[in-house]
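Example 3.2
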Amino acid sequence: MGIIVGLCTVELFIPESQSLKDKRRVLLSLKDRLRERFNLSVAEVDGQDLWQKAVLGLACVANEGRHVNQVCDQALNLIRGIPTVEIVQSRVELL
C-alpha cells in the first residue's frame, strides 16, 4: 500500500466581510471546524490581503484514494453548509 496525499483547494467568497478582521474571524472558525472534524491540515494559501476572497488549501493523508476523496467531499459539504461563505470553485487532487 502506498501513501495518498489529497490536496483540496477551495476559493471562497465572504460577502458580509467588511474588513480583514471580519474575514479572519470567519476563516478562523471555519479552519478550526475543518481541523477538528476531519483532522485536515488547513491554511489560507491566497487572497490574504483581500476582504471578501480567500483560497484555502486542505491536505489529507491516507493509504486509500477513496478515503481521501470521501474526506475532501465531506469537508466541502461542511463548507457549503456555512451561510457566511460561498464556494466560488474547488478542486481535489490526489498525489
